[in-house]
Amino acid sequence: MSKQITAPLRCWQRMLSGRRLDLLDPSPLDIEIEDIAHGLARVARWNGQTKGSAIFSVAQHSLLVEALFSGIVAGQPKMERLSALLHDAPEYVVGDMISPFKAVIGADYKAVEHRLLAAIHIRFGITNKIPEQVTKRIKAADQIAAYFEAVRIAGFKEDEAKQLFGKPPVPLTAYEHFIEPWTAEAAKTRFLERFSSLELP
Asked: How far apart are CA 114 and CA 119, in angstroms?
């Protein structure tokens, strides 16, 4: 009886730029900002369970998080603001897994996400080890954004959102324009424009 030869599993994704990104060993050389913006603008937050005729994309969420991060403490360095903008950048490859599903999958998902984020940081000149206090401030901005999104477009009651994400220390009024879902092209364009303004030399 002849042995059946099993082909190795494909662990890479072809990007529209032509790059082939290996998820197990991502190279910074295979990462392009246009691919990130294009992908994030088409990945839905909240598994698409949001109000509006367009999805609320990860690209739009990323812009909201960066705006919150930059607004809470003024004068933060470009590298830190760029880190905030790119905090969910791996999702252009792996999608936006909701937190309950991440808990089910466990550590394997986080390992892939961390490898991708490290490669993205190298590609765009961000110091590979972001200070812990900066990471905490980005996470705090992420939680505020989640609260705003939850109560405005994802169907959560305020009490439920406060229990899950905490009470935001800033009012929604200053960030209203980030909450109304944009088209994919608008989200991509605005993401690229913001990236360009923060791009490191």
From this structure: 9
